[in-house]
Amino acid sequence: MQRFDLAQKLIREAGERLREAQLEPGTIQQKTGHQDLVTDWDAATEQFLRREILGAFPRDAIVGEEYPDAGSGEVTWYLDPIDGTTNFINQRRNYAISIGCWRGESPLFGLVLDVERQTLYAAESAQGAWREGQRLHVSACREIEGLLVDTPGVLHTFLESHPWQAGLIHLAQDVRAVRCLGSVALELCAVAAGEADAFITLRSSPWDHNAARIILTEAGGALCTLDGLPLPLDKKSTVLAANSMELQARLLASYCCAEKEN
Ligand code: 2AM
Ligand code: CA
Q1: Active-site residue flag, 208
Q2: d(Cα 93, Cα 97) in Å, to the nearest integer?
Q3: What is the tens place of the pLDDT at every residue in 170-196?
Q4: CB of 84 sitting under 6 A from ligand 1
């Protein structure tokens, strides 16, 4: 079986298991604090994906959220077993499984499953972005006043002190609306689907964005860091995503000029 076919089979199977999961209180733990939770299901889902992927492609490398990196082959799988764990716990919706596959710096494919809606976002390199058979395209809005901007949470983006804080508060005042869903992967897919125009986060990890970024790029969107640099594959970074290079450049120039320390 090809990697892309295997990944689609595994993500749907993992999604079925999560939909049936019993979320007893003893299965929820704090990771780094009370705002950073993890469940037994995060670990079980990632174990399942790793076992199946390495069983079929033993020379591939795996980078996942819950376990140390494995392997060093030229193909790397980026796994987030549950993106939006707090939503999984509190809402039992708006969470995703994310699988991104890269050959070195080149994207192969990205899959993001909106688990409770049983909706799969998928993109192979140069084949467009798709949602359950429907081709996805970014929105056409370029006017700041008309933008809907997604960000995973208010605290890190607007309330904590960081070099872009003043600019991002101005942006929030200028756009039509800011929405917080709480899942980096689903929020990037919302930009890919034209349901949001831009996305900002102060902190994203390779497993959060390395699948959805392929979907967004294939849908016509653009991503970079808040410094305007290429989004790294292998380390945490800020993310600015937009429906076009044009809007990305406008947002960078007007709102992301970080205050320089003296
Ligand atoms: P998670 O659910 O996989 O932890 C909102 O919390 C979004 O930011 C989610 O996509 C979440 O992913 C991600 N996130 C949470 N804590 C994070 C951290 N410390 N670093 C990077 N991303 C984080
Ligand atoms: Ca996660």
Answers
A1: yes
A2: 12
A3: 999 999 999 999 999 999 999 999 999
A4: yes
Residue 152 CA: which ligand 1 atom is closest?
Answer: 5
- To the query of whether residue 200 is one of the catalytic residues in this protein, the response is no
How many Å lie between the centroid of ligand 1 and the Cα of residue 104? 24
Q: How far is the CA of 253 from the centre of ligand 2 (A)?
A: 32
Q: Is the pTM of this model over 0.85?
A: yes
Cα–Cα dist 43/17, whole Å: 13
Kindly report, residue by residue over 57-102, the tens digit of the pLDDT. 999 999 999 999 999 899 999 999 999 999 999 999 999 999 999 9
Shortest-distance Cα residue to atom 5 of ligand 1:
182
pLDDT of residue 260: 54
Q: How far is the CA of 140 from the centre of ligand 2 (A)?
A: 31
pLDDT at position 30, please?
94
Q: Is the pLDDT of residue 262 over 50?
A: no
Helix axes 3-20, 40-56, angle to 10 degrees: 160
Q: Which residue ranges form the domains of the chain, and what is each CATH number?
A: 3-135 (3.30.540.10), 144-261 (3.40.190.80)
Does residue 36 carry a catalytic annotation?
no
